[in-house]
Design brief:
Blueprint: E1 12-13, H1 17-29, H2 32-35, E2 41-45, E3 55-58, E4 63-66, H3 75-90, H4 93-102, E5 105-108, E6 112-115, H5 129-136
Parallel strand pairs: 2-4
Antiparallel strand pairs: 1-2, 3-4, 5-6
Amino acid sequence: MPKNWPHKKEKFKGWSKSEKKQILEILKKLPKALTQVGDLSLRRALKSEAEGNPSTCAPQERTIVFYDDISKYGYSRVLTHELAHILYESLPEEQKNVYKKAAQWDGDAVQGFRTSRTQFSEEDGRLGPDEDFANNV
């Protein structure tokens, strides 16, 4: 289990050789802006505490956990999405504000985010600018 991992009920397991190879190949193909975010910890677990979730990210710790449900989505799509969460978290506030303005987000993490937009690339993009950003990468 990763250090400070909040989901204590999750059961972790090792990577298969084919999974490791697949992840390394994907990382080689992604833009450096996504892959050069610092030391990553990529872990493997059986099932998320959140039903149907293929992965979870702890951006501050640069940890990504992939679950068995990954097969429904594929490593490339999910890894890119989770790396985008880490990238967003690492952006200076000024750059986050540029994204929030361009994507029509108001508010903040304390008071809550709001948008007048009605269309999102993925439904959970409505949750806030960080999820919206990760969905749009």
